[in-house]
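Quick illustration for those who missed Monday's session on complexes.
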Amino acid sequence: MEVFGTQALIPEIGMFAVQKLPYHSCRRCGRCCTAKLIPLYEKDLERLGGFRSFYMPTNSLEREITGAAYKMMMVNSRCVFLDGTICKVYDMRPDTCRRHPFIVTRKRILVSAACPGVDWSRENNDLDYYRTLSSGISERLDRFIEARSRLSSRWTRLLAPGQRPQP
Ligand code: SF4
Ligand code: SF4
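Prediction with iron/sulfur cluster bound:
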């Protein structure tokens, strides 16, 4: 399988940063609804306003990465709206679920490393669609990835042979 345009895996979010958006055809495996952080934004909470007890507060790291104050509730690691492999609120599902397996931020194209529906052999022309659905997370995630890169290059510099403390 050719992973075109792959730059790097970002392990904290399990996504590849790539140059071009690949095609996607969902296999309805339900993997993205299981043991996942599904950040919820104002728009999502309004859309799902007819339901109760489906969300909970994010922790500080989750807030730092996603900018969301709330996330979807998981029961036994499964989204509360998941029935078998079917979403019970498909037409009202949050933007996070609509854009999966992609996040298109202002600066990056990110693709889930775990979704079996990604077709790396074809390019996807719906970049703007995914960018709009990623608007809630875009800015915070870019900031998080940049902070992470700065930290990792500092470590690389510190560990470079010339910089290592002499025994
Ligand atoms: S992980 Fe990918 S293929 Fe599986 S349900 Fe989610 S979007 Fe579809
Ligand atoms: S709302 Fe639906 S699509 Fe989103 S995680 Fe839950 S079951 Fe999956």
